[in-house]
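Example for tutorial group B:
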């Protein structure tokens, strides 16, 4: 009699509670097909809306691994019209699913992870094959999010009283300060600090980082551009943003400290008679991330933090990148859940 196993790949789907079958007993060759609902495909620089709703994980690839009686089989999916097929599957005892290169081991932040966009790596495994009816078994796999996504846009200078103290200011770039490079630990975190005298080395040092949690702007005139950065998208294309996928951090997370967005400026010149330190370098550091009236104390896994309308006033500009010693900016954030598209696996 043909045996059928259904494998649900879903976030938050409850497992059945019927009898467990921990040892696989399917002897015939089997075919596994994976059906994935249509996902949202976006470029890294596209601005995922934070106006409610959800953003789907963009599934780039799926790898199904089965621990069979004859040894471990790793089977790559052959895709056709949204259906992924696996062939010659026999006697499974453990099943795992890897989406977009997800692995069970702790991850190290690198260029690929930072720029993975909505193609988040996910992984899950199970040894519990649950019997739900005669010759029918189910396995529930729950690939958990292990990244959070930050998106920044609408960066521009404002002058509420039309009395800007600056005559010139160059926007060099932006970076995330104090970013964890290892999952679950702050060991070897990317961080830069400087005195006023050392301020000129900050941006040069950041650009030497191997992990791209920074973007170079090279905007000669920060004061008069009323449109903001990044440059607006062309007509009919996605809005633009500076986006970084990083490890979850903050209160309640293994990584307890939030990274701080820092903007770097140079060639600062003030009007005659304005009191100013003898330095051409300026920085803006986000001191607080706010969601409405509530301060965000953690960037949680599986969420997109959309930080738009970063308007910079003269008083936000300080002489070093160290938040607290100089002026700090409050950033307003909207949050979008980052969901895995629902899919099913049928084992024939």
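The residue assignment follows.
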């Amino acid at each position: 009699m043909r045996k059928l196993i259904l494998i649900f790949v879903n976030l938050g789907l409850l497992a059945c509670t019927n009898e467990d079958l921990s040892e696989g007993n399917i002897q015939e060759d089997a075919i596994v097909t994976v059906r994935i609902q249509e996902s949202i495909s976006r470029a890294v620089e596209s601005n995922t809306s934070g106006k409610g709703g959800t953003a789907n994980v963009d599934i780039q690839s799926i790898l199904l691994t089965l621990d069979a009686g004859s040894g471990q089989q790793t089977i790559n999916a052959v895709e056709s019209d949204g259906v992924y097929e696996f062939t010659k599957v026999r006697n499974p005892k453990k099943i795992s699913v890897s989406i977009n290169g997800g692995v069970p081991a702790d991850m190290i932040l690198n260029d690929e992870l930072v720029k993975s966009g909505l193609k988040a790596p996910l992984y899950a495994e199970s040894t519990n094959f649950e019997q739900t009816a005669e010759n029918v078994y189910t396995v529930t796999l729950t690939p958990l999010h292990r990244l959070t996504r930050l998106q920044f846009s609408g960066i521009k200078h404002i002058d509420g009283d039309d009395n800007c103290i600056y005559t010139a200011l160059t926007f060099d770039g932006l970076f995330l300060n104090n970013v964890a490079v290892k999952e679950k630990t702050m060991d070897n975190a990317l961080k830069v600090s400087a005195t006023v005298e050392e301020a000129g080395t900050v941006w040069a040092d950041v650009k030497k980082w191997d992990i791209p949690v920074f973007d170079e702007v090279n905007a000669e005139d920060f004061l008069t551009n009323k449109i903001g950065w990044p440059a607006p998208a062309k007509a009919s294309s996605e809005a633009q943003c500076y986006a970084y996928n990083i490890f979850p951090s903050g209160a309640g997370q293994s990584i307890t400290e939030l990274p701080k967005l820092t903007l770097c400026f140079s060639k600062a010149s003030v009007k005659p008679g304005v009191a100013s330190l003898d330095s051409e370098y300026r920085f803006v550091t986000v001191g607080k991330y706010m969601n409405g009236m509530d301060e965000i104390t953690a960037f949680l896994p599986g969420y997109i933090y959309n930080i738009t309308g970063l308007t910079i006033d003269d008083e936000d500009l300080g002489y070093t990148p160290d938040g607290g010693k100089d002026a700090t900016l409050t950033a307003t954030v909207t949050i979008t859940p980052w969901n895995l598209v629902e899919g099913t696996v049928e084992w024939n």
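Residues 1-24, 37-47, 342-348 have pLDDT under 50 and may be disordered. Compare this with the pattern of hydrophobic and polar residues in the output above.
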